[in-house]
Design a protein that fits this description.
4 strands, Ribonucleotide Reductase, subunit A, two-stranded antiparallel sheet, single chain, 358 residues, two-stranded parallel ribbon, globular, mainly alpha
Length: 358
């Protein structure tokens, strides 16, 4: 982590949350009238069953801290190195910003649409994401770094996305979030001595919320199949690569976090990619060939380029700016080469629903 990103105060945590970079979570807005035109009739039976699951709210009592929480933090987290502490705080801030981003988006859609199906769904998902963001923020407050989420909502920049971009990006964000959390949970379940913070004990039921959210967007896309064919396949391909590349580069900038869990960043990332590929076959007729040596080499190059960009940013001045522009162009060229690699194609299953079986 760069020195100028050291998280040592509430103000520094707020600056981190407000960052707008290629790797930082963003806040979104969209076309609410287009959302109103969505028709869920083709998947009505599956949709009704899913709404009943949301109504049942099996995680309503999950996000409550136990009396042992603070004791665990004091006993285990106090032993981590200062560098590791920074990586974990970066992880918490990125996570709470990402969860709160979903809460804001879903709540804004819920308030601005009249379509009863979409209104109901967005109300449920905003409820879930609000719990997630609040729970993570409690852990930041333990360190005196709690974020003012209301202030963040008012001051962080928003990005406009067409509804279909929202569907592709948010579906992948929710599913890859499930894959990340369940992989960490399983690792620490096998190796409890590596659980340096108690928040990880909540990950299993937590990530099932993420899985269900992804299922919801899968049903929206399956009910509107034009989103999954023709020129839209190019957008699906773009968002698959963008989400994977962002995760890979971000994870490799904080390797100590994975090492502390007994994980290696590259192995962890490709485990997550493989799970996400398997899941996304429920809705996307293409997946990325993550075992292609050219794909793996390209992802490594993106990370190396990002380290050069970070170094140029730290250097500052005219030479630093020129170097950043040069390496940014190299990153764009590498992304383009990755985008043009052959993809894997397959038929969609009869039903879009899946179970979180990993």
């Amino acid at each position: 982590m760069q020195a100028d990103l050291t998280i040592d105060s509430a103000a520094a945590a707020e600056r981190k949350a407000k960052e707008t970079t290629l790797l930082s979570p963003r806040f979104y807005t969209t076309d609410f009238r287009a959302m109103d035109r969505l028709d869920m009739t083709p998947v009505r039976a599956e949709w009704t069953a899913m709404m009943a699951e949301y109504e049942g709210d099996n995680n309503h009592d999950h996000f409550q801290r136990t009396p042992e929480f603070a004791t665990e933090v004091a006993e285990r987290f106090s032993k981590v190195s200062p560098e590791m502490r920074q990586e974990f705080l970066d992880f918490l801030i990125t996570s709470v910003t990402s969860e709160f981003s979903g809460c804001i988006l879903y709540n804004e859609i819920q308030k601005n649409v009249t379509n009863p199906d979409i209104k109901q769904l967005m109300r449920f998902m905003a409820r879930d994401e609000s719990r997630h963001a609040g729970f993570i923020n409690q852990s930041l407050k333990d360190f005196g770094l709690g974020l003012d989420l209301g202030g963040l909502k008012r001051t962080k920049a928003y990005t406009y996305f067409k509804p279909k971009y929202i569907f592709y990006a948010t579906y992948l964000s929710e599913k890859i979030g499930y894959a990340r959390y369940i992989t960490i949970f399983r690792q620490l379940e096998r190796n409890p001595d590596k659980r340096f913070h108690p928040i990880f004990r909540w990950f299993e039921r937590w990530c099932n919320d993420e899985f269900r959210h992804g299922e919801s967007f899968a049903l929206i896309m399956r009910a509107n199949p034009h989103l999954l064919r023709g020129g839209n396949l190019l957008w699906i391909r773009f968002f698959l690569l963008a989400v994977y590349a962002t995760m890979y580069v971000r994870d490799h900038t904080r390797p100590m976090l994975h090492q502390a869990m007994g994980l290696e960043s590259t192995t962890y990332d490709y485990t997550v990619f493989r799970i996400t590929n398997d899941i996304s076959k429920q809705v996307f007729p293409i997946t990325l060939d993550i075992d292609n040596p050219a794909f793996r080499a390209g992802m490594d190059r993106l990370f190396r380029i990002q380290t050069r960009i970070n170094a140029a940013k730290a250097r500052g001045g005219v030479l630093g700016l020129a170097s950043r522009l040069l390496w940014s162009a190299a990153g764009l060229a590498t992304f383009a080469r990755l985008y043009l690699l052959p993809v894997q194609r397959h038929e969609l299953p009869a039903s879009a629903r899946m179970a979180p079986a990993w």
